[in-house]
Design brief:
The complex is a heterodimer of chains A (about 350) and B (about 350). By secondary structure, chain A is an alpha/beta fold. Chain A has a domain of about 60 residues: CBS domain Like, CATH 3.90.1280. Chain A is built from 17 helices and 14 strands. In chain A, the strands form three sheets. Chain A has a six-stranded mixed β-sheet, with helices on both faces. In chain A, strands 2-1-4-5 form a four-stranded antiparallel β-sheet, sandwiched between helices. A four-stranded mixed β-sheet of chain A has the order 11-14-13-12. In chain A, helix 15 links the parallel strand 12 and strand 13. Chain A is globular, with a radius of gyration of 23 Å. Chain B folds into two domains: about 60 residues, no CATH class; about 260 residues, MetI-like fold (Orthogonal Bundle), CATH 1.10.3720.10. In chain B, helix 7 runs antiparallel to helix 8, helix 8 packs antiparallel against helix 16 and helix 12 crosses helix 14. The longest helix of chain B is centred in the N-terminal third of the chain and has 43 residues. Chain B is globular and about 80 Å long. Classes of the chains: A alpha/beta (about 350), B mainly alpha (about 350). Chains A and B meet through helix 4, strand 6 and helix 6 of A and helix 13 and helix 14 of B. The complex binds adenosine-5'-triphosphate and magnesium ion (MG). The site of magnesium ion has 3 residues of chain A, from helix 3.
């Protein structure tokens, strides 16, 4: 695999009066509750190791207080770590001077915020152009670029408005346009869609996926919503009490959760809608005959069930780039839909 | 025989008390005088005096009386006075100069230029024709009853003092918002400036500067009126949405870009509210400052009190109210416009 774009190594963050002293306890194996009880320090992050690949969407998921915001703010050093490294494109940004850090924030990274964080006294156009204005570019340059991205996110003609004149969904589109105007490779999104209502939220997720197909940025996306995580993630990191409990391909985590916390998390979701043919199929290139038809490897089980019209005796050929990759039997499909089964299976593997 | 003899006897200080014979020359306290007339009455537990400086002085002549405390303070101040005015005089000279020039400008400009200019200024900051009509009408009314010159003097003083308050107060407020320690040190000072009766800081100022100099009342007004603009600048900047500040950092703004591009604009409604209060407080102080030769409507109020000229006092009081309303409405209208421009 290619070198990761962002690599977080042994990252610790402890909030309190004397984080260094508490750090030794955390390194000795203390967890969040114990550290708070015994030493009155809040464990923000403990021994985080995550690699994020260029061009992928890495989703960090966890409940409130699990340290998601703390983690993403280490990537541009809005928060200083207590210990550990963040390596971006091969350079440890902990060694950066103030000027280097500013350059990193201007050129290589942009950020989208949960509550939009637009400047209320600037127009939509000026807001979208913020990264270029900050960088001292001429009006003619930033006007063209910001207009281009505002158009791209569906805000044609809204440039002269002020943020408070727009709806929440539109304001977040400005937030995304602002991030895109910086032309940075990395986009950090902290619960970017959490403040939006469900329909708008789906729209925004689709917009992000569409932009991502086109632009291939390295996206770090924070969410506490599993459906959103599964929809967007190429790589899923699950955080609990400041620690990574599991990370990997989302489909793999669904089939093999290694922690009761994750089992809880995934027990409520509609598995038919998120599991894909390639996850459940048996890999083979031999055609045993008697197959009812072909499905794409990325088809959801819901699609497959619809195609079989509910008949559980059928089997399908699974295609990857139009060549056969495996066989999917409806019996396996139905089995995969039972969460406890999957959970037990996962628990057995973990222990 | 005084109540607290036993303390000094007990401590073996009796000799020191009677030693230098200062007991005889110390000025008599009120109680001494009372005691001299007639026999000292029998002391019961009910009228045991608090062991105050004067009571202890009764028992021990070498112990200082309380009037020596105030006199000591006075002497100390007089001792450093020369050094202090040596430093402060040149530093504050521009204030005298600004006040003199503003007074000259406001009075020498003919009324038919001055009133339209004021109306235009009000129009520019408030964008309200109603207010402009009110302002023009008020000044015309003041001019009609021959109070125009006094009103202009008051306005000139407020103008200079308010500008200086903002020019000093906003940077101090910004510095406070950036450092918790500086804020911690400044808050008691601001509390003191705000609660001290204004007459109190006139006293040392009178010693420091000659009463004929405009800076005397200028400093008094500024000290009194600068507090709200400092406080509200500090507060306004501290209240700026944390996520917006984070966004400014995340997009790599320098401290300077953040201050001028984000913090000050977003704190502007609060800063303007502070400016409004500062102006109102300078107006209140300008009347008191007439005691130390500040010209303007306050002089007429004083005349009303001193000579019992009821009519003059009331009319000039009303003139001050009119000025207050004008200044308040204009700054509030400007504030409302800022607020409307940055609703969240
Ligand atoms: N400045 C701070 N001082 C002390 N504790 C902090 C600070 N910032 C965060 N924490 C603690 O660190 C933990 C992680 O906080 P964080 O904001 O990263 O959570 P989160 O996963 O983003 O939660 P949410 O979904 O509510 O945004 C929490 O227990 C929080 O109380
Ligand atoms: Mg958060």
């Amino acid at each position: 695999m290619a070198d990761p774009k962002i690599s977080i190594r042994n990252l610790y963050k402890i909030f309190g009066d004397d984080p260094q002293a508490a750090l030794t306890h955390a390194k000795a194996g203390m967890h969040k509750d114990e550290l708070l009880e015994a030493h009155r320090h809040v464990l923000g992050l403990r021994d985080i190791n995550v690699d994020m690949q260029a061009g992928e969407i890495t989703v960090v998921m966890g409940l409130s207080g699990s340290g998601k915001s703390t983690l993403i703010r280490h990537l541009n050093r809005l928060i200083e770590p207590t210990d550990g490294e963040v390596v971006i494109a091969g350079e440890n940004i902990m060694d950066y001077s103030d000027a280097q850090l500013r350059a990193l924030r201007r050129k290589q990274m942009s950020m989208v915020f949960q509550k939009f964080a637009l400047l209320p006294h600037r127009t939509v156009l000026e807001n979208a152009a913020t990264p270029m204005i900050v960088d001292g570019e001429k009006r003619s340059a930033w006007e063209a670029e910001a207009t281009k991205w505002l158009d791209r996110v569906g805000l044609q003609g809204q440039g002269p408005q002020y943020p408070h004149q727009l709806s929440g969904g539109m304001q977040q589109r400005v937030g995304i346009a602002r991030a895109l105007t910086s032309n940075s490779d990395i986009m950090l999104m902290d619960e970017a869609f959490s403040a939006l209502d469900p329909l708008i939220r789906t729209d925004m997720q689709d917009l992000l996926l569409e932009l991502q197909r086109e632009l291939q940025k390295t996206v770090v996306f924070i969410t506490h919503d599993l459906d959103e995580a599964l929809k967007l993630a190429d790589h899923l990191v699950i955080l609990k009490d400041g620690e990574v409990v599991q990370q990997g391909e989302p489909q793999h985590i669904l089939m093999h959760p290694n922690d009761p916390y994750i089992v809880d998390f995934i027990s409520d979701i509609n598995r038919a809608r998120v599991l894909r043919a390639r996850t459940v199929m048996r890999e083979t290139t031999e055609d045993p005959g008697g197959l009812a038809g072909a499905v794409d490897e990325n088809a959801t089980l819901e699609d497959v069930i619809a195609k079989a019209d509910g008949d559980t005796n059928l089997s399908f050929r699974v295609l990857r780039d139009d060549t056969m990759a495996g066989i999917l039997s409806m019996t396996d499909v139905v089995k995969a839909l039972v969460p406890t089964d999957a959970a037990e299976d996962g628990m057995r593997k973990a222990s | 025989m005084a109540t607290y003899d036993w303390i000094f006897d007990g401590l073996g200080l009796r000799q020191w008390c009677d030693g230098d014979g200062s007991g005889g020359s110390a000025p008599m306290s009120m109680a001494d005088l009372m005691n001299q007339t007639g026999n000292a009455p029998e002391r019961t537990i009910w009228d045991t005096p608090f062991p105050s400086m004067d009571a202890l002085n009764d028992a021990c002549a070498s112990f200082p009386q309380s009037r020596e405390l105030t006199r000591g303070l006075e002497r100390g101040f007089l001792d450093i006075k020369d050094a202090l005015s040596y430093v402060l005089d040149p530093l504050t000279q521009p204030l005298s100069w600004a006040l003199q020039n503003a007074l000259w400008l406001f009075q020498e400009t003919p009324w038919w230029i001055m009133i339209p200019v004021l109306a235009l200024v009000v129009l520019a900051i408030s964008k309200s024709w109603k207010l402009v009509a009110f302002v023009a009408g008020s000044f015309a009314a003041l001019a009609f009853i021959d109070y125009y010159d006094y009103a202009m003097q008051t306005l000139a003083i407020i103008f200079v003092c308010a500008v200086i308050c903002v020019a000093l107060g906003v940077p101090i407020g910004i510095a406070m918002s950036r450092s918790d320690r500086f804020q911690g040190g400044m808050i008691p000072v601001l509390d003191m400036l705000q609660t001290l009766p204004p007459f109190v800081y006139l006293i040392p100022l009178i010693f420091l500067f000659s009463v004929t100099e405009p800076k005397l009342y200028g400093i008094a007004i500024i000290l009194y009126a600068i507090v709200p603009v400092i406080r509200l600048t500090n507060l306004g900047i501290r209240l700026v949405d944390k996520e917006v500040i984070e966004a400014a950092d995340a997009f790599g703004m320098t401290k300077r870009q953040k201050l001028y591009g984000v913090q000050i604009p977003l704190a502007l409604p609060n800063i303007m509210a502070g400016v409004n209060q500062t102006i109102m407080m300078s107006l209140a102080m300008v009347v008191i400052a007439s005691l130390v030769s500040a010209p303007g409507l306050g002089v007429l109020v004083l005349r009303g009190i001193r000579n019992l000229e009821l009519g003059v006092g009331l009319i000039s009081g009303l003139g001050i109210v009119l000025l207050a309303v004008i200044l308040d409405r204009s700054t509030k209208a400007a504030l409302a416009r800022v607020n409307a421009a940055q609703k969240h």
